[in-house]
Amino acid sequence: MGPTGASEHVTALPELLRSWLPGRRWFAEKGRPLRSVRVEERIALPVTGTHLLGLEVLVLSVAFDDDGPARHYQLHLARGRSAPEGAPVIGTVDTGSGSSGSSGGSDGSDGSDGSGDSDSSDGSGGETLYDGLYDPDVTGWILRAIADGTAVEGLAFVPEPGAELPLGETGRVVDAEQSNTSIRWGEHSILKIYRRLSPGRNPDLELHRALRAAGSTSVAALQGAIEGTLDGEPATYGMLQEFAAGSEDGWERATAAVREGADFTGEARALGEALAEIHTALRDELGSSEADPVTMAAYWNSRLDAVAGQVPVLEPYVPAIRAAYDEVAALGAPVVVQRMHGDLHLGQTLRRRSDGHWLVIDFEGEPAATPAERRAPDSTVRDVVGMLFSFDYAAFHHLLTRSDTPGGDLGSDTPEARAAQAWAAANRDAFCAGYAGRGGADPRAAAALLRAYELDKAVYQVLYETRSRPAWLPIPLTAIARDTGE
Fold first, then answer.
1. Cβ pair 462, 476 in contact under 8 A
2. pLDDT score for 312
3. pLDDT tens for residues 265-312?
4. Positive or negative, the Cα torsion across 72, 76, 80, 85?
5. I need a surface site. Which of 29, 48, 88, 379 has the fewest CB within 10 A?
6. H runs (alpha helix) in 98-202
7. What gap in Å lies between CA 205 and CA 158, rounded to an integer?
8. What SS3 state is found at 311?
C-alpha cells in the first residue's frame, strides 16, 4: 500500500500527532500515555480542491508507555495553505525549514483550532495540516471513487451492485459520532470511516453484506465500502450505507416512554421480530455450528473471577453465579452458535417514523473484544440478553439521579421502583414473544442458558459501570440479585 515512513515534507508529523491524537473523540486509548506515533503506511489520493495541496490516507501505529500492544489508526492527512472552516487542525509546518508549529484542536473537541479559515503560511511557504474528512473536496472525491470502483495503491473503493449514490450532494461530518467518523450526504447516504483499524474484515461490513444478500429489511441498505490490507490481511477502512432519514433512536424513544408512563410493549415486540429476522438471515447465509457448554461455562467463570477480584461488591453473589454457569455446563448437549450482532442494545436501533419499522445498526461487535472475538460465532441468546438488559437500563437509570432515591435502591417497594420493575418485565416479555413469533426459538424456553448469559452480561456491566459510571452500578447488581434469588 505504498511506501512506509513519514512524508518527506512533514518530518515533524509524528510528534504533532502525539499531542493531537489524545484530544480526538474517536481516539480509544485516552487513558494510556502515548510513547510514540509512527506513520506505518501512506496512500496518496489524487484529490484537488480549494484548500488542498495534497491528501494522504495514513495508517498510524501508536505505541504506549504501558508496553501494551500498539494500535493502528486511520487518518486522512490534508495539506493546505489553510484549512476549511471547522476542520480540526493538526499543526503547521514550514516547508522551507522543516520546522513545525503547535498542534491544533487539542481541547478534546473535533472542531478547528479556532483559526477558522485563516491563512497559516505567513508568506513563508508554510502549510497547514488538517483532518481531510472535514474537507468537502475530499469527501466528494471519496464518494465518486466508490461509485466508479476506483483503486489506489491497494486501497479499493467498492460499490455495491445497484447502489445509486448522491454524487450531487456535499458530504458533511456527523457531529454525534464517537468511536469512528461518519460523513453524511443529505438524506441518502452515510459513510462510516473506521478510525481504529484491525487486520481482518470488519464484522460491520461482513454482516451487512450477508444481510444484503439475504434481502433483510431490518438493516439500512449497504451501498459500498473502502477496503485494503493491514499486516498482510484484508482490512476494512470504511462502509457506505443508506442514511435512515427521519429515524428515532431506540434508547431515546424507550426512555421517553418511561418518563411519560407510556406503553412500549408493541415496540418491544417489533424489536424482537426484527432481531429474529436478522438472526435467521445470518444463519441462512453464514451457517451455524456447535459449542461445548463446558467450555462456555469455563469462559464465563474466568470473567467472573477477574471481575470479582477488582469489584469486591460482587463477591457475595459469586457462588450463586457460578452455580448458574455450572447448570449450563451440565446440560450435556452442545449449544448452537452462529454469527450475530454481538453488542446489541436500544442505542443500536432506529425506528423509522415513516412506517414504524425498526432497523438494527452497528454490527462491529463488543468494542472491548479482540477482532477475533468479535468475529467468533456465539449463541443468539447473547443478542437477546443485550436487549433485555437495555430494557432494564431504560426503566431504572432515571431513578439513580433522583435526590429522593440515594444509592439507587432499585429493588425497593416504592411506587417508582415498582413501576420501573413492571415496565422492564413487560417489555422483556414482549421482546421475547416477538422474537419467538418471527421464527426464533423462544429464549425463555432455555431458562438455564438465558440466565447464564444474563449473569455473564451483568458481571461485565458491573466492571464497566464501576470504571465508567459508578452511579449506574445498582442496575447490573439488581439484575444479579434478581437472577440468583440473592
1. yes
2. 96
3. 999 999 999 999 999 999 999 999 999 999 999 999 999 999 999 999
4. negative
5. 48
6. 136-148
7. 12
8. coil
